[in-house]
């Protein structure tokens, strides 16, 4: 069932991309899921295991018909782990829409995760627990 949802999502994204390509000269397509998933277990789990941290690592897909835009803008939001935290997506999207948004650069590295237990965890602390 889970594999089927991935296949369906891929088809929908491809259809959206095809329509945008046919109808618009310039566009930016951004896709990111709202949460990660531990295959065959689900999401929102409070397990103390490597899989626990994996559920917070979700893809960010950006396709742009513009030359090298928004690549530079997007790269500026990568943290020390070379990831972009979802807390910063609102700032990235605001900038892409033309709003002038200034954020403290330290916020890019501070990636707090609100868990299903109601507590906030720092992503770096979760990852450090499971690195060899």
Compact overview of the structure:
By secondary structure, the chain is of the alpha+beta class. Helices cover 40% and strands 11% of the residues.
Number of strands: 4
Strand content of the residues, in percent? Answer: 5-15%
Low-confidence stretches: none
Number of helices: 6
- Class by alpha and beta content: alpha+beta
**Major sheet: arrangement of strands:** 1-2
If you had to describe this structure to a student in words, what would you say it looks like?
With 132 residues, the chain is α+β, with helices and mostly antiparallel strands. It has one domain. It has 6 helices and 4 strands; from the N terminus they run H-E-H-E-H-H-H-E-E-H. The protein has helices at residues 2-23, 50-54, 71-75, 89-96, 105-109, 123-130, and strands at residues 28-31, 61-64, 112-114, 120-122. The strands form 2 sheets. Strands 1-2 form a two-stranded antiparallel ribbon. The longest helix is centred in the N-terminal third of the chain and has 22 residues, at 2-23. The model has no long low-confidence stretch (mean pLDDT 79).
What key attributes describe this structure?
two-stranded antiparallel sheet; alpha+beta; 132 residues; flat
Task: Tell me the layout of helices and strands.
Layout: H1 2-23, E1 28-31, H2 50-54, E2 61-64, H3 71-75, H4 89-96, H5 105-109, E3 112-114, E4 120-122, H6 123-130
Antiparallel strand pairs: 1-2, 3-4
């Amino acid at each position: 069932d889970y594999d089927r949802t991935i296949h369906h999502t891929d088809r929908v994204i491809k259809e959206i991309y095809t329509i945008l390509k046919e109808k618009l000269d310039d566009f930016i397509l951004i896709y990111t899921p709202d949460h990660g998933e531990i295959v065959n277990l689900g999401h929102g789990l409070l397990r103390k295991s490597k899989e626990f941290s994996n559920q917070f690592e979700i893809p960010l897909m950006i396709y742009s018909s513009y030359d090298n835009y928004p690549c530079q803008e997007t790269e500026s939001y990568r943290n020390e782990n070379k990831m972009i935290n979802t807390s910063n997506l609102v700032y990235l999207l605001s900038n892409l829409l033309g709003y002038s948004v200034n954020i403290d650069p330290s916020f890019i590295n501070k990636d707090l995760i609100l868990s299903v237990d109601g507590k906030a965890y720092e992503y770096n602390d979760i990852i450090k627990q499971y690195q060899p």
